[in-house]
Amino acid sequence: MPYVPLFVRVERVVIVGGGRVAERKARTLIDLGVDVTVVAPEEPEWSRDLPVKFVRRRVEGPEDLPEADLYVVATDDPDLNSRLERELSLVNRVDTSRPKVRFPSVLRCGDAVLAISTGKPRVTRALRMIAAELLGPILKKAAELPEDARKWSLERVIGELTGVRR
What we know:
7 strands; two-stranded antiparallel ribbon
């Protein structure tokens, strides 16, 4: 099945697991302003340094998890990860190359958000770095312009980049 590019408003995320990948996902989500709850049998040290809620619990299934808009499944138990992915609606499963939900690499410039995903993390990061270098200053300036000037400016930039004049 193909992936559908989509921006989803997410207020609450539950991360199942407490390892390095869970920490990385928590930091990303916190930077985006999301409320994060970490559920794991033992409290990870990193969770004490971040604004996350911690729930000490061994998870056997979805019934052991608080309600959330998105779940990040980052345990070392592939069977549990698979079950949670099947039974919960919006799940990023970190131990598979084809999760239901994939986190893109994100470039933010003011109100502008550019998301890139290739399925290959190194390629995705490289493309994000290239986009930041080439498009970052343009996106930042465009996001700061008043609305009426923004439309004219973006049409002009697009024309310069594509050779199509309006």
